[in-house]
Amino acid sequence: MIEKYKTIFIISLLLFLIGSCILSICVGAIEIPLGDLMKIINKQFRSNNPVESQQEAVLMAIRMPRVILGLLIGGTLGICGTAIQGIFRNPLAEPGLIGISSGASLFAVMFIVLGNSLFSSLTHYMGYYALAIVSFLGALLTTTVLYKFSVRKGRTSITTLLLMGIAINALIGALVGLFTFIANDEELRNITFWNLGSLGGASWQSVAALLPFALICMGSLLFFGKPLNALLLGESQAEHLGINLQQTKRTIVVLTAIGVGACVALSGIIGFLALLVPHLLRMTVTADHKFLLPGSVLLGASLLVLADLLARTIVIPAELPIGIITAIMGVPMFLAIIIKNTKEGNIS
Amino acid sequence: MISIQGLNYFIGSQRILQDVQMRVVGGELVGIIGPNGAGKSSLLKLISKENHGYSGEILINGKNLKKYKILELAKFRAVLPQSNYLAVNLKVLDIVLMGRYPHFNYKPSSEDIRIAKCCLDEMGMAGFQERMIFTLSGGEQQRVQLARVLAQIYQQRDGILLMDEPINGLDLEYQQVILEKAKDLARLGMCVICVLHDINLAAQYADQILLLKNGKVKDFGPPEEVLTEEAVFDMYHTKVKRIEKGILGYTGILPSGMG
């Protein structure tokens, strides 16, 4: 009965995602009506007409990579949010709030400012990949530190977790400020982009850079439904059910760092999405991770593609940073969770 | 079979268990009783491989506990903890199916689902499988958790069941139902170890009773031998009257005032 219900929900999420993508491809500073979209796509496969229309150029060089980048980042952030909340056993764990994203961004900013002088050959040969790997290391470092400090005897202290998040974010804010101080104009523009988050830099290269990281992260995390469900019973019960906790946690931390790190490298910090997505699904469907994990990929992708659509159409021809949109969507949800948890006595 | 030799356990410099010996063979239900802080739960946590860092030897079915992989152990040993804190709301049947986790990889087989339903039925919760756990009362939630534990070791003849205060928050009927069920599993050939606060329930159901005080084994044997008025007074500083086995079918203990 319920299984059927979950399948129906997954299919509707998939349809929602396809709808969001088509809408996002068609709407923008230059409109591409659905009919024209079909014609252009058709043409790609025949390619007997070498003349490119303006619409086609916009679609192929700008709109498509941007929507695909949005898809990958949204899906990755969504599933990472679910996985992180699962291992911390806490609904408030979110890569942005607890400092994982800023850890990644600090390393990215450091790389931008110092990269040209220190690792010029590395940047030259590896380009976006170097940035993604460096951000991954930053994310991995902060996640490990967070976990070491905030989890005692298998229970996460929410207070410690959030305070650690504040501390990490403040420290990193200061360090990023320091790098801003010594950065030149071009580097400065890049740094600003990091802190606000944007898909504006999307290109086929950036899609290609993110793709392996996103696929590894999403593809592997999808298989963690069973251990994450068992963790809902508590750490010792999960072990009694035969789950190897240390290995599970370590793998999830690394996979999340890969995903969040690469996303931050390519789009900057996009806050609250990872918090919002798992909650929406838990509230509306179920807390069963076998549904939650694939569901959060689909919903995360749809919401980010739609948020990006808003970000680039509200103030045409300018663009809003996408972080503003996701924060406006996410903050009310965050407050609602805190209020609910306080009432239930989970936060003191 | 569980065999424990010279078990010592410290938390920091605090001695929790001192030279514990005990041997439980398949087919027996052993009740661990003792005052608060005697080390009952610690002993159970060591046997369940939840806590480490002890000295001495714990053998499970002839093999050293330290040599078992977590999954290997989970296939025949189930643990019901003292408190069942659930982080989020889940469907009752999904919770019971978690008991089958050691037995399937990704998707439960139809046999796993049949077992889960059967265990819910045994706990008198047959009509609840589609309900969400938070809509149930505390006692009903406890029965769901028990059904999950039963599903984990369903019909394992060499199975081991460890229970810490399984009847917490249950009414008279289900106290009896659950211990009766534990006794059935023992009769099937399993080792059942159960920490109990209620001496009378221990006397009623246990084949052997382990008296634990300050981390030391005071006595270990059949209830009618272990539960003397003197021994109970020594443990709880409470005067008791013993009711002999002939009347209730088991040795009863009634308090008659502070000593």
UniProtKB/TrEMBL annotation, chain A:
Family according to the record: Belongs to the binding-protein-dependent transport system permease family. FecCD subfamily.
Q: What is this protein called?
A: Iron ABC transporter permease
The lineage, from the top, is: Bacteria, Pseudomonadati, Bacteroidota, Sphingobacteriia, Sphingobacteriales
**UniProt KW keywords:** Cell membrane, Membrane, Transmembrane, Transmembrane helix, Transport
Q: List residues traversing the bilayer.
A: 7-30, 67-88, 95-114, 126-149, 161-182, 202-224, 252-279, 291-311, 318-339
Q: How does this chain sit within the bilayer?
A: Multi-pass membrane protein
- SUPFAM superfamilies annotated for this entry? ABC transporter involved in vitamin B12 uptake, BtuC
Q: Where in the cell is it found?
A: Cell membrane
UniProtKB/TrEMBL annotation, chain B:
Query: What range(s) does the ABC transporter domain occupy?
Result: 2-239
Q: Which UniProt keywords apply?
A: ATP-binding, Nucleotide-binding, Translocase, Transport
- GO molecular function ontology, one term from the record: ATP binding
User: What domain of life does the UniProt record list for this protein's source?
Assistant: Bacteria
Q: Which Pfam families match?
A: ABC_tran
Alphabetical list of NCBIfam families matching this protein: PRK13548.1
**Protein task:** Part of the ABC transporter complex HmuTUV involved in hemin import. Responsible for energy coupling to the transport system.
> What's the protein here called?
Heme ABC transporter ATP-binding protein
Q: Which species does the entry assign this protein to? A: Sphingobacterium tenebrionis
Source organism phylogeny = Bacteria, Pseudomonadati, Bacteroidota, Sphingobacteriia, Sphingobacteriales
